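Suppose a colleague, Dr. K., hands you the sequence of a protein chain of 900 amino acids and asks what its three-dimensional shape might be. Before reaching for any lab equipment, you can write down a predicted structure in token form. Begin with the sequence itself:
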Amino acid sequence: MAVRQLGFSLTAALALLSALPTALPAEPYLVKDLNTSSPFNRGQVDLANRGIGPGVSYFSAADPAHGAELWRSDGTPGGTERLTDICAGPCNSLPASISVHAGRVFFKADDGFSGDELWVSDGTPGSERRVRDLCPGPCSAYPVRVEEVGDRLLFFSYFQTSSRYELWQTDGTREGTLRVKTFCPDGCYVSELIPIGERALFSVDNVDLWVTDGTAGGTRFLRRLRFDFSSSGFLPSVIPSDGFAWMWDADGLWRTDGTAAGTVLLKPMDELATESVFSHDLDRLALWHGLLVGVLDSGEMIRSDGTPEGTFRIASFPSSSALGSFAALDSEILFLVGDASGPSVLWSTRGTADTTGPKIVLEAAVEPTSLTRLGGDRAVFLAGLSQYLDKTQIWVTDGTAAGTRPLALPPGFVYSGAFYPIGNGATGDRRALFFREFPGDSLWITDGTEAGTHEVRSFRNVPGSSGPLEQAALEGKLVFSAKVSEARAPLFISDGTAAGTGLLSERANNAFSFFRFGDRLLFSASRLGGYPPTMWATDGTPAGTTRVSRYGFSHPALLGGQVLFSGFSGLGDELMKTDGLTRTVQLVKDIDPFVVEMSHHRCEAESSRPVFGGVVGGRLILAADDGRSGRELWASDGTPAGTVLVRDINPGRTPGAPEPCEDFPDAPRRHDTGLSSDPQGFVLLGGVALFSADDGLRGRELWVTNGTFRGTHRVADLVPGPRGSAPHDLLRFHGQVYFLAANPGRGESLWRTDGTARGTTRVLDLTLDGLPSWGRGLTVAAGRLFFTVYNEATGAELWASTGDASGTGLVTDLNPGPGNSSAQFLTAVGGVLLFTADDGLTGLEPWRTDGTAAGTVCLGDLAPGRDASSPGPYTAIKKVVMTGADDGVHGREPWAIPRD
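The predicted structure, expressed as tokens, is then:
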């Protein structure tokens, strides 16, 4: 594929480089390890969401440096490893719908750019790749578990934007992933596929049963499943077997091979369920040696071998019984039965109604749960007293009373969730994974013996991380909050050296929303153990770090000699101001005077949540919600009378606003409220402000305001219709405003504007060889615009632009092919751009570029190998650039990158 890449002459490149300051050397260093003990971000394991292969389990798990990704385990520490970092760094790709076919692992995941899509891995680290971007761009296709149907791999995808389902087939490649059929263009629910040999069954809206062989012609309606509408909550179910399936609906138990002729009623409902109950759901069942054994809500245990004569009731339990999990051993089926009068009881059955039918295996003063087969005639379960979690024990059973006992493990264990066998039971692996919740979050394994029960991997014992959590520059130093224990995140200051890094304030906890005002920083912080956060100030010294007021402090902006901000008080988040020097804080205006009922007649003041866009004509432009007009365009001169609605861009109304509560008798009443245009992305250009807004008719488009009603209007309708072009990342560059906006069917384009319709032009369609692209993160550095562009062919990579079409293109494909380099935290430092990226070899690490491929270099592999140090954000101070990074040894701590 031909990729548009920037090219420069050697002379031009040398001239550019000679004009730049000394390049940043690739020698980042750890400034100081501030948290040497307590981890503030622990890992976790999601064993309930897994897939199984021969002797191995694939599952979602998270660690602090990489977020929730795909892992695998064969039950040994060395064979337990992370396979992916699809959402590069600590963000979560959240793998789900995991299935294994012919040595390949299929799953859905979100890389942060292309939404939830289908991915495949060969089971080795770094081999993952997106199969196809089914919903192109940042939208999600939500693929459902891939199933093997005959010689085809099939799956459903759900497209939330249109509420439709699509049936797809795949061979694991983009070219071999093809749409079979579209369902429910107007919205419905489609179940997962249930393979039965060369066909698969699925239901639409739980009523219509369909069959497919993986072709459009072979995908057809089979029959309607009957609800019992008098039994609320009753749902039909389909249970697969070898070449056929059982179906349970209000008529009774059926058998089907996927054809009309092969769909027959085995036994009617009244011969299987004799007691009238709220529902006759069949949702607790086991498949054993060709038999279906299950329990109805009415308490009847039924069995079926797929024939009418082999389908009958074998036992009855009280309808108040709670039927728990099943474990199908080689010689019998174990199951748990409990009721309101006492703990659960362990039973066994061979699926017959004679004297060898259900019998009690264990009846004791314990509460068994999570019954799981280990293989052969052995199973494990948890048992204990729910009020004494530290007394929970692992039990093992062979289906006999004599062979049922607790394992003699050290006391104080607390277990969570369930047991999950490793691999398929047919492989002969007789072990199960489980999650130990206390005293450490960790993955464990058991084979049903004391010696074979041990920890596989800890997801809690990670290095303590301080952050930084939030940071800002002040007089050549970095002010930041850092987590030093579970409860404490005090304020620090650093000059980029260990000796020059120290505590600024123990009392200012979890500081955020830093704002430079003269020679001080204003910010929001909580007192240790206190809530909510209040307004603070610092001059960079311990004595000069003080609490300013009891109000919250966020979204600050400068107007004249005062700071306007969104301050939280008893009136909600409203418009306030301060001179920043004294403790004088004033409410400018309670823009939203209404109240809202939260729960149980508890009321709170609504918030206008002002967010500022810059000073135009001596007034501060802002977006706010007054509770009447919706979130709209406002302006303020810092006085109550001078804080006014500029224009209600979306004049639509909606009924059903809440009435005031008794504890706010004087609050104004309303019966409806306005729809919001939600102004966003303000940027100043000359004497006006440009922003995006949605008027409710033409979608989100580019608007301009000079602070007056008449001077507020749409600049251009770039995409006619109600969806709009959704302009974003508005940024001033070379005397104009550049932005990214939709180009229907082709992703997005780079645009520029001078604030007029005539002066709004497309710079470049970002499409590459017919594949659409989407951009984000416009940043000015080194005399260029930089931004990250996602395209299915190249992945998410760094682009640059000189402001015209010929100078716009890919800087370099850091992670070659469709893999993402995930360029992020784009920051201008001197004459270069610092950013964080993953080249597919080193993980997410710090990089710098001058806008050329040759001038794009990695500054260091802080976490060696494919592990990600995930640096960012970057803040320049004197001779270094400060950031947070995790080298895998010290946790996430402050690091410095020398500037010269």
